[in-house]
Amino acid sequence: MAVPYNHRAIETKWRENWEKHPVNVDDGKKEKYYCLDMFPYPSGNGLHVGHWRGYVISDVWSRYKMLNGYYLIHPMGWDAFGLPAENYAIKMGVHPAKSTAENVSNIKKQINDIAAIYDWDMEVNTTDPEFYKWTQWIFVKMFKEGLAYEKEFPINWCPSCKTGLANEEVVNGKCERCGAEVTKKNLRQWMLKITAYADRLLNDLDKLDWPEKVKKMQSDWIGKSYGAEVDFPVDGRDEKITVYTTRPDTLYGATFMVLAPEHELAAALATEEKRAEVEKYIYDASMKSNVDRLQDKEKTGVFTGSYAINPLNGEKTPIWLSDYVLADYGTGAIMCVPAHDDRDFEFAKKFDIPIVQVIAKDGVEIENMTEAYTEAAGTMINSGEWNGMESAVLKKEAPHIIEKRGLGKATVNYKLRDWVFSRQRYWGEPIPIIHCPKCGNVPVPEEDLPLRLPEVDSYEPTGTGESPLAAIDEWVNCKCPVCGADAKRETNTMPQWAGSSWYFLRYVDSKNTEELVSKEKAHKYLPVDMYIGGVEHAVLHLLYSRFYTKFLYDIGAVDFEEPFTKLFNQGMITGKNGIKMSKSKGNVVSPDDLVRDYGCDSLRMYELFVGPPELDAEWDDRGIDGVYRFLNRFWKLAADSCEAGAAETKEMVKLRHKLVFDITQRLESFSLNTVISGFMEYNNKFIELAKKTGGIDKETMETFIILLAPFAPHITEELWEMYGHTESVFESRWPKHDEEAMKDDEIEIPVQINGKTRGVVSVPADVSKEDAIAAGKEVIADKLTGNIVKEIYVPGKIINIVQK
Ligand code: ANZ
Ligand code: ZN
């Protein structure tokens, strides 16, 4: 009898062994494979079983690639700047540098429990000056290329985090970090011109092997649309109002216009008697956030008393102000077509403005419109020379017609805005710019980078719109690097996304003091082949990283334009009833006890067994028993078979090839939960076989061990050694299946009715009685007329159906 499975002894032994004898080495001959995890921010709460899931998925995939002969790039690091780390530090009353260092060392210990094959020589930390030197360097390069610029305008402001936010960080009007309602604040900002990359960011999505959902979120966020800018002269004045519309085909139906309250002509257009009302409206709107303005509630507005002329039909259209029109989109002014736009319809109904239908389904005008007809399909009516045209055709042509007739121009518009890049917070990379009274904005010379974050006593946000750095005179006051005059440092810091926008490039050359990454290493090891992480980063981090990579490509720092070739988003592990795991809800499950009681191998496999990896799954501790039992049974089968030394049989060989085929196919399609159930099923089949033969042959068992190795690395190493190998199981190669060997032997059996042969059926040699009879009956189905009274199967010889 073999010794029982002792996970504790085995796991300790192999953890030490791997440290001494690393298995993932670059021999210069292997092809590289870069499998990346979204790096964590080192929170004080440590890891729960949900974090484990992503890391296990990526580790299994990495080890699988290793077994396929690749040299693996599989690094880990820390996204340690930014609001989460700083908010935590403030809450705990410790300096963020100190709490960050402590949290990193705790989480690193926990990560080691996963037995993930990370290459810690590559480790990066975004708060390390040797790292953020290059975050600042990229900014300086962008500044020199005109892609980083300063601008004052009303930005999103989180009153609780006391900082400005990027559009991407505002989710349903709330701060992505803390959930506080976002307001507007007029602030001097550093901006990154991500809009200059809008088309490339959109078009290159086609090249990516990413979930369609994520690609769609990015393309919606970029939001490219074709339309026209149309000029409406103001009646009796010299000015004209330019509107942006995606539907110039509906121009004949424009019965009024609306300007954003911030529009430069808004106040000027008010007639004498409307002035007071208009000014009050403009003031009230300035107090509201964008989201408040766009949310579906009753429309408000005010008539200016002035009119514009519809350039197509010369009709006078009243000019209104309303806050449902945004100042910073299009031209901040729209032509309103109530018959075909919901918001315009609602507005027209409320203020009793005429509604003119111009698109009609099958050419039939609606008698009493109760809602806008928003479908694009139909025939043009009430539209002068356009009458009778198909609206779909006109929609495409109208922008060009308008341009030709000098009424405006065809345009392309994007929803994407430039990236608000400064934060009024302490814990971030200082923006390396010096404000000189003579030279203007001057970048810190590249050789002076990193510009270190100074030590401060008070790092809490001030709330005034100034960063805490502004209070440190000896840091702020400096000399201009160009002219030597007294100058002042920029005191804003970078957002938490700055470091994560490029960290994956640094891993492969993390100690380079001369370059962000050497050209040679960048070419050899990049880009990332597989990126694994949560879906919450669909637009933020994943869009910013693509932008950074394209910029670095443009300045010749890297030779590829897309950072992540393939992306996998894992689902969340939740507590009972799908509730997100959080300390405040008291439903956090720590992996630590489970590792102690069941072992790392069991927990790894259970993390995958809970459900399809791309879907959310509810955690239930009890299920881990099943996986643990499987490993015990597998251990016993392998150990007993090793002792027995049984010879292979045809059945064993066939099952072995089927096992290889099934597991590989499921793994390749990322169906990791069914890989685990597959292991369990095959294990049971082999145990049944072994009952007859005394054991399973060596080659079959070794094949099974290799297949299981990426999932349960410790137990498989131990068994591999038991089978007489001196090198690691991860130095072997992933087995291949043989189509021929998988085939079941078929035999032909005559099928009789009442003892008379009526057909022949072909079935697998080891067919069960039930399956044989069922297959036989199918062959003679049309000849079965009476009541079946008896079914006889003489194994391998005859099927006889007796009917009355
Ligand atoms: C006339 C019209 C008729 C429109 C119709 C729509 C339907 P996207 O696709 O999102 O770009 N619009 C333009 N600028 C706006 C602003 N600053 N604030 C609010 N709305 C604005 O949408 C473009 C459409 O949104 C434009 O086309 C305009 O209304 C409105 F049957 O013009 B449309
Ligand atoms: Zn906030």
From TrEMBL:
Presence of the UniProt keyword Ligase in the record: yes
Ranges of residues in domain Leucyl-tRNA synthetase editing: 220-396
Domain Aminoacyl-tRNA synthetase class Ia: 416-606
Locus of motif 'KMSKS' region: 580-584
Superkingdom classification of source: Bacteria
Molecular-function annotations in GO: leucine-tRNA ligase activity
Predominant cellular place of this UniProt entry's protein: cytoplasm
Annotated localization: Cytoplasm
The Methionyl/Leucyl tRNA synthetase domain, residue ranges: 39-183
Enzyme kind, highest EC tier: ligase
EC number: 6.1.1.4
Binding site for ATP: K583
Catalyzed reaction equations: tRNA(Leu) + L-leucine + ATP = L-leucyl-tRNA(Leu) + AMP + diphosphate
Keyword terms, alphabetized: Aminoacyl-tRNA synthetase, ATP-binding, Cytoplasm, Ligase, Nucleotide-binding, Protein biosynthesis
Residue ranges occupied by any Methionyl/Valyl/Leucyl/Isoleucyl-tRNA synthetase anticodon-binding domain in the UniProt entry: 650-768
InterPro entries: aa-tRNA-synth_Ia, Leu-tRNA-ligase, Leu_tRNA-synth_edit, M/V/L/I-tRNA-synth_anticd-bd, Methionyl/Leucyl_tRNA_Synth, Rossmann-like_a/b/a_fold, tRNAsynth_Ia_anticodon-bd, Val/Leu/Ile-tRNA-synth_edit
Stated family: Belongs to the class-I aminoacyl-tRNA synthetase family.
Record protein name field: Leucine--tRNA ligase
UniProt source species: Ruminococcus gauvreauii
Higher taxonomy: Bacteria, Bacillati, Bacillota, Clostridia, Eubacteriales
